[in-house]
Write a structure and sequence with these properties.
Blueprint: E1 3-7, E2 19-23, E3 26-30, H1 39-42, E4 58-60, H2 66-69, H3 72-77, E5 84-86, H4 88-118, H5 130-136, E6 140-142, E7 148-152, E8 155-161, E9 169-177, E10 180-186, E11 209-213, H6 226-243, E12 247-250, H7 256-269, E13 277-281, H8 283-295, E14 315-317, H9 321-326, E15 334-338, H10 348-355, E16 362-365, H11 374-379, E17 384-387, E18 390-393, E19 397-400, H12 410-418, E20 427-430, H13 434-446, E21 454-455, E22 462-465, E23 470-473, H14 490-507, H15 511-530
Helix pairs in contact: 4-5, 4-8, 6-7, 12-13
The chain binds zinc ion.
């Protein structure tokens, strides 16, 4: 049985997850995600797929996050008409998330085209529209956890709870018949476990090959339970209130927003934090909240923990952009939750633009921030940031709270891999930046796995699989140089340099000093033009 596994995304980076497994007469995708972060990486979203869309028979979708599902409408637009297998909550969440993503694509392209027009450059088309997203929903087929489904003749799949977000699964793919079956387990994204909102991640014991995520492969987080997490949140609220407020929380719309709302309500209710109005300024988060109210059942606790969100008097759901503008007039202590979680898009940018310069404001970051995103720059302590072509001084208090991660930490990942033993073949590490991949590899080695069996695939690399071996094979050339997926690109470098130059010019003691500074830059530019690179 000849099997080939390709990594067309989330290879040496955490976005664009897309694995392709092909064999005798079949070609299937596990996830079809969008690249996010540096512009060079995002540019891949506009390029054709690195495979022949016509040959794809099926898509196995692990969960609804855009970095795993966001290119499905593009796949449909390119002619794909096969099934997209997903759990019911994943399907319902995709319905709101992909439509939102389509709107974002349309909005971004409209913005870009206005600029392209001014500069006399050709106009571009959105990757897909909200309408394309809607049409894609017709391809979804629901699967239940634990049930074995036939994907194509000779290939079956089973979905296991991954505890990462509502509906999230690890997917076990079984290829072949009778004695000759090769199993490959894709972890998808794994949750931290021990939460009221989600089941603990699980999976089969005994697989041939494993593809495991490595987002936090190099980091151990403090282990906290619900009470501990709420105590930390309450402390942040008290400090933000003392600083004068308001508190701004960039929030992932699906999962994180709902958890934060529950925790905010709980700490205010318990009197541990100053009471105030809470604004959820994200249409996507509001629509997703409806899905959580309907499908948020936790099978471990046999309860829907999201029920309190239905009737909370101090939570306000802001659907229209006009609602968002009205927040400018608020003077009392209040909390704003807005997307996107990494501050790259959405209404959060508007609030950051109007509030970042104020010392009494607190920005509390609770989620993973990929390299090159505005959220990461803020978390790293940048004092000047660029938002949609404008510079902004950062005087607000920037705080991070890492107890809300939807991802397992390094210990959790190792534990999950150990529980999948025996593993006959290789362990592929995906969905991690290079440091995280190295960190996870070291930890797996320390717990007894052979280094030769630990693989860190680069973008577009391919491997031939037998039941106990994986062999790197030459495939189409990679769309990026190895190691370039998670680094800051020249766009970031330019924005950074220009911002620092502007600040230095402003801070110079005299006009003469300003002129000298500019002449020095001029000289350096001339010299570098004469030196061959
Ligand atoms: Zn995810």
């Amino acid at each position: 049985m000849a099997l080939t596994l390709n990594f067309h995304g989330a290879a040496e980076c955490v976005t664009g997850y897309c694995a392709r497994l092909s064999g005798d007469g079949f070609d299937i995708l596990v996830d079809c995600g969008m690249f996010q972060g540096p512009k060079t990486l995002k540019a891949l979203n506009y390029e054709p797929f690195p495979f022949d869309v016509e040959t794809i028979d099926a898509v196995l979708l692990t969960h609804a996050h855009i970095d795993h599902s966001g290119m499905l409408p593009k796949l449909m637009k390119a002619g794909y008409r096969g099934p997209i297998f997903a759990t019911a909550p994943t399907r319902d969440l995709c319905e709101v998330m992909l439509a939102d993503s389509g709107e974002i694509q349309e909005g971004e392209v409209a913005f870009l085209n206005r600029r392209n027009q001014h500069r006399g450059r050709p106009l571009v088309e959105p990757v897909y529209t909200a309408r394309d997203a809607k049409r894609t929903m017709e391809l979804f087929e629901r699967v239940k956890f634990d049930e074995v489904v036939e994907v194509v003749p000779g290939v079956r799949a089973r979905y296991w709870p991954a505890g990462h977000m509502l509906g999230a699964a690890s997917v076990e793919v079984m290829v072949g018949e009778g004695e000759d079956v090769t199993t490959i387990l894709f972890s998808g994204d794994l949750g931290a476990g021990g939460q009221d909102y989600l089941p603990d991640p699980t999976g089969p014991a005994g697989v041939d090959h494993l593809v495991v995520e490595a987002t936090y492969g190099d980091r151990e987080r403090q282990a906290v339970d619900t009470a501990g997490r709420r105590a930390l949140l309450a402390e942040e609220l008290r400090q933000a209130h003392k600083a004068g407020g308001p508190l701004l929380m960039p929030t992932f719309a699906v999962g994180r927003a709902q958890e934060l709302l529950l925790d905010l309500l709980a700490v205010m209710e318990a009197g541990d934090a100053p009471r105030g109005q809470i604004f959820l300024d994200s249409p996507l988060a509001i629509e997703a909240t409806d899905v959580f109210l309907e499908r948020g059942w936790n099978r471990d606790t046999e309860d829907n923990p999201f029920r309190p969100l239905r009737h909370a008097a101090n939570v306000h759901y802001l659907m229209k952009p006009g609602d968002s503008d009205r927040l400018e007039r608020l003077r009392d202590w209040h909390i704003i939750l807005a997307g996107s979680g990494m501050c790259d898009a959405g209404r959060i940018r508007r609030h950051l633009k109007r509030l970042l310069w104020r010392r009494e404001v607190t920005v509390l970051i609770t989620g993973y921030q990929a390299v090159g995103t505005l959220g990461r720059l803020l978390a790293d302590g940048k004092k000047l940031v660029r938002i949609q072509g404008e510079d902004f001084q950062v005087r607000a208090r920037i705080r991070t709270l890492d107890v809300y991660s939807a991802h397992a930490d390094a210990n959790g990942l190792v534990e999950w891999v150990r529980a999948r033993q025996p593993i006959r073949g290789d362990i592929f590490m995906a969905h991690g930046e290079p440091n995280s991949l190295d960190g996870l590899a070291q930890r797996l080695e320390r717990s007894g796995f052979y280094p030769a069996k630990l693989v860190k695939p680069a973008l577009d690399q391919a491997f031939d699989l037998t039941r106990d071996q994986a062999q790197r094979v030459e495939a189409a050339p990679s769309r990026l140089q190895p190691g370039r997926a998670a680094t800051l690109d020249w766009h970031n470098a330019r924005a950074d340099l220009l911002a620092r130059l502007a600040a230095q010019i402003e801070d110079a003691p005299s006009d003469e000093a300003r002129l000298q500074l500019l002449l020095a830059v001029e000289r350096a530019m001339k010299e570098s033009a004469q030196t061959p690179a």
